[in-house]
Write a structure and sequence with these properties.
Distance between the termini: 30 Å
Order of helices and strands: HHHH
Helix content: 55-70%
Largest sheet: none
Structural class: mainly alpha
Oligomer: single chain
Number of domains: 1
Number of strands: 0
Radius of gyration: 14 Å
Number of helices: 4
Strand content: under 5%
């Protein structure tokens, strides 16, 4: 995926479905957390959809980024 799809990718990777699938298919760190490794993330079944179908996901990503922006500026 390229820069044009990063906000779509952000929404998909933060979804409960991907989180559930990743926990089923990936190794645990041994302390109850999942290790997010590049090789496992590349295997995730991320749907390839047209730009108009991506729009609702991009809008959700924009909302997430807008809500978390104040948290990033406070810690700086």
């Amino acid at each position: 995926m390229t820069g044009k799809s990063l906000r779509y990718l952000l929404a998909v990777l933060n979804s409960k479905v991907i989180f559930y699938y990743y926990n089923l298919t990936s190794a645990s760190s041994g302390v109850g957390t999942t290790m997010w490794q590049k090789i496992n993330v590349e295997k995730l079944p991320i749907p390839k959809i047209c730009e108009t179908e991506k729009q609702p996901f991009i809008e959700k990503s924009n909302i997430m980024l807008k809500l978390t922006q104040p948290l990033c500026t406070e810690s700086a």
